[in-house]
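Predicting holo structure, DP6 bound.
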Amino acid sequence: MPVYQATASAPVNIACIKYWGKRDTKLILPTNSSLSVTLDQDNLRATTTSRADPKFEQDQLWLNGKVDEIKPGGRLATCIAEMKKLRAQVESGSPNEPKLAEFKLHISSFNNFPTAAGLASSAAGFAALVASLAALYQLPTSPSELSRIARQGSGSACRSLFGGFVAWEKGTAADGSDSLAVEVAPREHWPDIHALICVVSDDKKGTSSTTGMQRTVETSTLLEHRIKHVVPERMRAISEAIKARDFDTFARITMQDSNQFHSVALDTDPPIFYLNDVSRAIIALIIEYNRVSVEAGGKLKAAYTYDAGPNAVIYTLKENVKEIVSLIVKYFPQTDGFKDTFGLFGSTGVGEGGVV
Ligand code: DP6
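Done. Tokens:
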């Protein structure tokens, strides 16, 4: 009896232009395009194994070793159903193929980083799930096509299907067929970029991205301005900066967009605060670090960015990593009292191939 099983890993991605708001909550269609950097596989990734077997009685998922519910009609069920649909098309075209689409699935997924740290675990998780099913079902699909399905698990997951620098184009079609991830540049294009992840707090965040962004869509007037007048130009300018390996522009836009995302969170009713005092102190440190460089006739050397939580990601060039790590360790010493609330999680390069 043959064994039908496949494993895939997908890394976390961290957005420079933030996705925040859906125009369709079921299909997960965003109100604006976004752009991110996929981190490398070594530090933060999800690894998922999927197995199809006629003896299995139901689809079942284990997350970090614990059974997790697959809610009917939920995001997970949608992704699985979409992948089975693609497999069924392959089978109907070639009658000799085993009928894998009809078998139930057992899926096991592990993160190699603390899920509670609020570090885009769902992005890596859904990308790895979709990639493992694509391998199991031997689907001839491109990463962009798979991103359309990963998007329905968690919006930001669609960007983890590629390594390097990735845009999620919001698209205009009502069925979401053109709301896809596309590669802006591969990792090899700019290998000097590094991301430093500073775990400020591993508390579970107060307001989830899913809930928070819809509250913003419903109540923020600033969001409208952001969608119409800010993001399109930033997407163009940051893509160009990446292509030109222009760190100064990349850093400026990344920090501006993080600031604006947290501004629309604050403009939400009731307001959402994701940053804490330590997050703000890190912003002050990076601003000062850049100021010293610019005043000496240099350029911006680092960019902070924050997602829906207090943890900082600092983008910088390889040559500055050591200096920034020692600054952070100096100003945010990991004393006993501090150890649990602040730690330098790791420095990581840009990811090579997205999923493997
Ligand atoms: C602030 O992708 O987690 O990290 O689509 O509802 O699952 P859902 O939201 P999610 O939102 C991520 C928001 C963000 C910005 C970003 O990654 O672009």
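The first helix runs from residue 75 to 93.
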